[in-house]
Amino acid sequence: MPYVVMKNFAYTLMDETYEFCIYSQKKYAKKLDIPFGISESAYYLQDLNYNYQYKAFGIPWLGVKRGLKEEVVVSPYSSIMAIDKDEKEVLKNIKALKRAGAYSKYGFYDAIDYTPNRVGKKRKAVVKTYMAHHQALILLSINNFLNEDILKERFSRNQEIKTLEILLQERVPQNVIFTKKKKEKIEALKYQDYEEYSERIINNPGGFVNILSNDNYTLLIDDFGQGYSVCKGNYLTRFKDSQLQSNVIYLKDIKNNLVWTNSKAPELREPDRYQVEFSPAVCKFLRSDENIDTTTKIAISPEDNVEIRSVSLHNHREEQAEMDVISYLENPLCKQEDDIAHMAFQNLFLSVSRYKDACILKRKNRDSKADDKYFVHFAFAEENLDEKFDFEIDKSKVIGSGRNIANASIAFKDKVYSNEVFPNLNTILSYKTNVSILPGEKKTIHYIYGFASSEEECIQIYEKYHNLDMISRVYELAFSRSLVENRFLGYRFKEISKYNDVMGQILAGSPTRKKYEKQIMASRLKQRDLWKFGISGDLPMILLKIKNINETEILRQLISLTEYWEHKRIKVDLVLVNEEENSYEEYVKDKIYELINAQNVNYLLNRSGGIHVIKHTQITEEEMNLLYACSDIVFDAHDGLLEEQLYEMG
Prior knowledge:
9-stranded antiparallel beta sheet, 3 domains, 5-stranded antiparallel beta sheet, 650 residues, Beta-galactosidase, Chain A, domain 5
């Protein structure tokens, strides 16, 4: 880089440095069978805002830093700067870069990434971004080449530079200089299939869970279709022990007088076939009933606080099918603990208004200084955007008196929806439409749910998402975001599946508690007795007992798990009980904090939904029994890794 503006003198230290650097660049590139030119540049890794990351790369035997051979990123500007030194090789290299796809409308892209664990079997990936200072170095180098080092001449006219120019004429020392006694062995790059995107196919449901999120809006759902949506701490679907689902789509076969739902729960009838596909981007439920295939796809928009559920009905019968499709949603639009404490009271602050064919739910905040909350819900048919949907907002008219979603009266009795907006104490949102499906035909209905801070924002969501192109865009962007997010955060699908299985046991009940039934039954203290340890007891809790410094691998796994859930906006308390007996040498304590520091999650220490460390000398037997009783899962580091305890007990 100094060569662009500073004069060069033959047989000097700087001249020999330039020559050897160019020679090393070409030799290294030849060994790897790639174009030459490696320096600092952008590389093929994006953050959550789709910005390429940037850092320095180099030649292993030139760099002071070790591990340079692990990453290989070629940047066009790096070789073009040598055009004055080796014109033929640079021009040849430029052609190779163009063949590799590094050249486009505005010149050379910033780099080509050949690093195996980032590009997988593709072997290379072009970093399609332009950096102004790298483009400038290309232009400056070409200017020098065509105009007899004009920039160097101008630079040397500066009096301060001229007085120091003699330093550039330092000769090469006669004595041999050893820079590295042990050279790194250069080998051809081995490309592997980077596990960017995978789907988990479930044929036998049993507590598997998937989590979708865009940082604000999070959906947690199991393979039965039970779960909840939450945005900024506000539950958009009711979820509690007595009701694990409040977002249901009923499908009524009118001719055969049969009723089922789009997922397995609530189980109105056993499906002929049932399969679930979970991925970091989409949840997909497939079921067959009486030669009607029902497919449900669910995704979260990366751009807005919007959830989309697309329900497709495929008729495999020889005659036309007549179906009533009825959606049902209970939306508390508040914190879960507030809804559980007094549901009827919370419903007093809900009201519904209409915009075109959308329902806008408003929660008026009791605190005059706080903002109101809004939720918009609408549906439209893919084959007919103008198809009308009847709506109802009174729970008693849809579910019926003394009934629940598993035996809702609307599913078994043909009721007419009122299409009226009026104040009531059991506000729900429900849409109903009739669908005629010819033999072999497929019809799709899209249900849109959006959280907003104003009525105007709800209207914007409606206008934006009442559009088939936008629905397709959401599924594409969800796929793209999942790749970028997991690559940036370093999560593999196998790890994600493992973390989701832990959440599945939290929701369904973990067999790891059986080992401690005696201690759980002996618990006599109250939840408030946890407060002295900084634990509220309101959140799900995982307990890990650890005694030996050589058994800390499960601790590393649980710290990563807690960090992953934090990114997904899911709050779980991880409680670590240090049972090390030697009070003088606290090896386990030091290791705990070492792992927390190594994974940069110090911000999770001693906070709600974070990590809590307790020394066994600070806790009584009664308090330990309380921890057992309040924990959803109990691990012992001595019993092995997370997967060993999780699946062995299950």
